[in-house]
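Troubleshooting log. The previous run stalled partway through. Resubmitting the same two chains, unchanged.
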Amino acid sequence: MKTIRFALLLGVPLAALGAELKPAPRPENYAPAAYLRDRVELRPILDEPLRHTYVMRGPDGAFYLTGTVASTQKSEARGQRSEAADFQNNDGIWLWRSTDLKTWQPLGQVWSIERQGAGWQKEKNLNPEDPAGPLVRGVTAPEIHFLKGTWWLCYSMNGHGTGLLKSASGKPEGPYEDAGRMTAGGANASMFEDFDPPSPGGLGLRREATTAQAGAAGAAVYWVWGPGRIARMKDDLSGLAEAPRQLTFEARFPLTGRMPKLHFPESVSLLKTDAGRRRYFLIVESGSCRLGGYTRDSHIFESDSLFGPFGTEGDLKNSDLLLEHGAQSTVFEDGAGRWYATFYGADNKAVWRDRPAIVSMDYDRGGGRPVRGRGRREFTERGPWATMPPLIEDVAVNDEQMLNAPDGGYYFTGSMFGDAFRKHGLSVWKSKTLEPRSVQPENWQEFTPVTVADIPFLAALAAKDPTVFDFTPRRPKLGTWWNAEIHYLKGNFWIVGGPSINDKATQEAMDQAGLKGRPLWRSKTGRAEGPYEIHAWLSYSCPSFFEDDDGKVYFLEGVSQMALMKDDLSGVDEAATAAIGNARGIKSYGYWNRLATTENLVMDYDIGNCMVKIGGKYVFFSCNCIGGYDYQYFVADDIWGHYSRPRVAMPHGGHSFVMKDKEGAWRCLQWASMGMVPFLHELHVEDTGDDVIIMPKWEYEHRKAAAGRR
Amino acid sequence: MRRTRRTWAAAICAAAVGFAAAAAAPQAFPVEGHLKDPSAALAEDRTYYLTGTTDINTLDPRHADFQNNDGVRLWKSKDLKTWEEVGLAWDLSKTGGRDPRKGGWQAHLRAVPGQPDKEWSRGVTAPELHFVKGGWWIVFALNDQDIGLLKSASGKPEGPYEEVGRIGNRFLGGDGSLFEDSDGRVYLVWGGGYVAPMKDDMSDIVEEPKALQLAIEGYPSEEPSENQTGERGAFVFRDGDVYRYLYAAWHLRDGAAHFDTLVCEAKSLFGPYSKPKVLIPDGGQATVFRAADASFKAACTADGDVRILGL
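Second attempt completed without errors. Output:
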């Protein structure tokens, strides 16, 4: 403390010497999330129940659509809820055609089990979705392919074997004749032509050869089905020419890995490209450990060999998710370089269920593959993602925090992203109400209550070396104010935060001043606007505070750690914190105690700590960095735990924050996956007596409505 | 798992397999309804040890079901009739920790495959006890995914067990099993019939997994398959020169759906395997072990109770 006081005393005259602060100018018309203005609600392309949406572009340049139809398809489907549709009982395969991907002309039923089926096709099968239920009969997951100069339909009968039909007319609408049962078991048949050289046009990611090559001899055709089985077909496609193999996968995670993301493939389809380092792409329908449940997403993996191992090296690393809730997606190109993926709403967190849709994709030329770019326009997940306005649009803010202050204002701050963005100080936005600025233009006015010039040792350094305060270079000597927060504690405003230090000399100056960590600032006026002075230096990466009803202030840090502050907030009460830790057998790290769950689950969700009290219970929030960047909550009777299992409070919340607003409603910030501009969601919070249930209000209303329908 | 209750005697009589189904009266198990996917093995001292998936979660009973439990529990018996609990051979709650090489992967909740409405869970599923390479091992999955291996530090089946780590991590399902061939080579068998040889030190698989070549795949057989779905519980054992592949599936038999234990056989480990037959009607996920008299016995679950059957 002596050195700190010394620095404080010394700092005032040095700052007065006038080290000039040169903030970086804010770029004009900066709108990091401008693309959000182009958001559209995802609409089905047909208002009919359809699963396993499959779209391909034929040699005539038109698009052909098929998929699993429901038995209610032709008679009762219109206007009926899709959940009532029975996809395991149907009478074959229907086809649609489009030239613009907007209007789809029905080509009708192209194959009927009842009229054209025979033998195994007519047998009743166990229902794979309900094995103990009544027997079923229907075509599942059909695909249409153009190979060897004609049209083919591959399909499965309820997952009990796969078969092939051939167009007798050479036309997509058939009639189709039986080309045989390919496998006696298995589901989700697909075909892949291993054309070589790859598509001559140069643009390419294809399932089969182009028109010019179609019918050319030599290209091997493979039957691909089930969880990644593959076998070469005979040249006339009359059956399999070899024993099936299993496509192999690289270990998704090294054996030292932590959180699982994937389970196992349910279905796969192969594509080939002539661009990029690798040549084969595998689209995999696989469950993901997302959103606190099991979502059926589509993923993309690559390999330089047809049989694998397929993995996520290089540009695919950490980005194998192709389409959320996409399940059995197919990707295709429209002939003009635009890429799309198919969708049908495969799980209960999808935007809607069991209707076909196409979603625009970006094409990564380097990787030679479609990607779901950050500039996404359609949202496939349930939630107000396509319509909700951000609070402010002209800044990208990470690690967001909001304070409902007793002075009548709301204060918002966080880590600001982007080059040269207010690194000279902390930006805070003040608002009287919670409406977005687009609705209420006077809301969310920005001010800078603390700057680097308020830090005495830096002011002293800048007096000697003015470049320390020059924020116009691309990489200034002082960097982002990561994870800063504004709090109201013990009747005053406090800010925790300071610049990161980018150069050695500045770091050395800090070490010489005997300073460790970053500042805790106290308002000298009792006003949020300050001015502020440094009250203490604290070591932290990701700090937050919580003042309990008894006036005790807790310091939350980084990885689910907590310490008790001294009464005057001059630092951590290390002795008291250690005593609590020892008494309860809690592991300590530095001067923090690690929070623990009843079942000793790992809580290293890295960031975004927030503690609130609801109905006498302590609710601890943190961001699940390794599961999907959701904001999760844990409930305990005692602030030190043990805490319940985590549950998702706010999907895609990121390092977020929860507060109670002036009307008593709970609110949660959210920014991840959404261009890093702030959104504010109302939460549904339910105190059940022995537990607290938290979810977005829109999610609660959805569940309530769904329960009402049932 | 939905299962219709059936009389056990009728099921035994209906057994139509390459083996003769035993007439031995089934024994009720002391933790009725709390154990499934049983696996048993005979130790040198002629004691049988048994483990399986439990729905016991002593730390948080609010989260207790077959996807949420507190680890691997063992029971032992001298006569396969009276069972005594040995205790928790591997405590899931003590595996946390900050070192991802040692902890971490077991200390997280997981989505349960195929159950989108179920909240993230944590439990050991289908652990199996094996004596291979002169030592005792428990191979298990966490929530039907991520297979792990434990080794007895004492060389005895009751443990204590230490963790070898996560093995065969190629996201192709759970239900891990070990198979030691007559040449001493040990294989990891799992999911819907995947097999890969293990490294000599048992630290992981040494090659990419292969799928067993099954007649139900339809190649090279042109015959219609058994009508079955939801295959799981892969288990391989060897009887003389014959490899037998055991699995559980929903199976269409006599016009109705049964969760049967099915078996098929081959002359080589990777197949081709014969058309499956019913080994244990409504037996579900079963494993096979050698009894003290060198005969094969199967451990399975029926009507919620563990059964030991002669084969």
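Takeaways: Residues 1-28 of chain B have pLDDT under 50 and may be disordered. Chain B touches chain A through 77 residues (CB under 8 Å).
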